[in-house]
Structure formats: structure tokens, C-alpha cells
Amino acid sequence: MRTSDLPQRISRRLLQDIAAGSIEAGQHLGAQQLADQYGVSRTPIREAMNILEAKGFLVRQENRGYFVADTDPETLTEVLDQQPESLNDAYHRLAEDWLTGRLPEEVTEQFLRQHYSWSKAWTNDILVRAAREGWIERKEGYGWRFLPVANTPEAFDEIYRFRMAIEPAAMLEPSFELDRKILTEQRRIQEGMLEMDFSAVPAESLLENGALFHEELIKLSGNPYFLMALQRVNRMRRLMEYRAEVNHERLVEQCTEHLEILELLEAGNTVDASYRMRQHLSGALKRKSPIAWNWAADKDAHSP
Fold this sequence. Notes:
Elements: H1 5-20, E1 28-29, H2 31-38, H3 42-54, E2 58-61, E3 65-68, H4 73-82, H5 86-99, E4 106-107, H6 109-116, H7 120-132, E5 136-138, E6 144-146, H8 153-170, H9 180-195, H10 203-219, H11 224-243, H12 248-266, H13 270-301
Helix pairs in contact: 1-3, 1-4, 2-3, 5-7, 5-11, 8-11, 8-13, 9-10, 9-12, 10-11, 12-13
């Protein structure tokens, strides 16, 4: 894996976000904003945008920067299907091995390189992404330590019950204040998801859109600790849900309920929105519990 491959991977990530609707046609792309979002420097971001401009997915305007071109969704799907996902596959392989007990709690980069036959650059990229998503951390001195994640049915249920406690309550905080810009943007994303072909969009992008919806709404509470808590538990459940097969009917139901919550907030019915949020999370817990049980069965099957 060469260092120069990084812009190619970022260009793919940008295309995935465009396909998922979290980045829309005509939107301005700032290098620093994307660098912060993807956890890299601005140099590979600029190179990635140059790549996508050459392919016609971005348009560069003098003295204004890059903007997303209006591209046919089928063209996006074809390009994404043609691009390799080897690094992404390796990332999920590491995650699955950790969740199913195939790896020790502490590892070194040398161990991972030998275990998976990865290059130094590739190993570093995967570890940096895992650290950014909150399930591994660098040890003081030498090596890496895997962090606890939701890998049991009990932990999965507890996370959703915790969310049922904090997300509806956040809407009732005295400091809760509507931001019409956030509500409008989330409505655009959720409505866009209902119109898209879910099978043509990476599961990660779809799941990220759902997590973003909840994090943007809890941010309106004006209490940063609500947001910090939600972001933490979202990271802990992320790996399990990435592995699960995307259920298209469930996604439609999820998006529809998100739009119902937005409609209540837009009308100023905050109390009703809070109650609807609790109903939404309760229903999600019932629908997603089988994911946790299936994961636990896989984990037991690989236990020594």
C-alpha cells in the first residue's frame, strides 16, 4: 500500500457520501472541513478533489473552490462498483476478529503486519481509522489497546435503553433551541434516502446518516454532555451494525420516523417530538435486537 493511495481512498469516500446524500449536488467542499471529517491533512483532500474533478464529479470555480457536480446516480454506482474496496475489507476483518475474540486485547503494529500480511502504511491507515472511530487506542510507549465495544446482546440493549433515556430528555432541556438550518439539512438527507436505491449505497454511509440525524438533534439541547455521551455509545455500537446486513424495509421505516420527528420540531411541538423520539428508539431496539443475538452466536462459535 503506497502513501499515494490515500487520495484515491478519500475520493472513494467522497463519492460514497455523495451517493448516500450526505453531500449534495452543488454543495461547496472545503478542504479543511473534509480534512477534519476524515481525520487527514488537507494535502490528500486536495489531491482527492483533483481526482474527482478530472472525472467530472466535482467542478472547480476560480477563487471559490470545488463544488459537487450534478451526476446521475447510476453513474456514481457504476464507478463505486468498479473501485476496489480492499482496505475497507481489511478494516472490517480487523473489527470482526476483535469482536469475535480472535485477537488479544493488546497488539503491536508488527504483530498485525505479520498476522494479516499487511504493509506498514496499510496497517497504520487501518489503526488510525479504528482510533478515530473509537474502538482502539495507542498505548503509552508502544503498541495498541482495543477498547470495549457493544459485542453482547446485553450491551446492545443497554446502549439503546441509555439512548431512550437521554435523547428524548435532551429535547426538554431549558437550553434546547431549534436551528432551522439543521432541521432543513436533516430533512433533505432523510427525504433523499427514501428516494435512493439502498442497494447501490455502502452500508456504512447509510448508517452514518442515521447516526448523524440523532447527533444533530441532540446537539440542539445546548448541553455538550448529551452530545458527547451519544457520540460515545454510537461508536461502541458502530461495528456490530456495520457487520449486519442492511434491511431496506427497516431503513425506510427509520427514515419515515425521522421525518415525523422533524415535522413535530418544525411545528414547535417539542414535547410531542420528545415522546416520538422515545417511541422511535424503543421500536429500533426491538427490531435490532436479533442483530446482537446473531453476533453473540458468531462470537461463541469462534471462542476457544
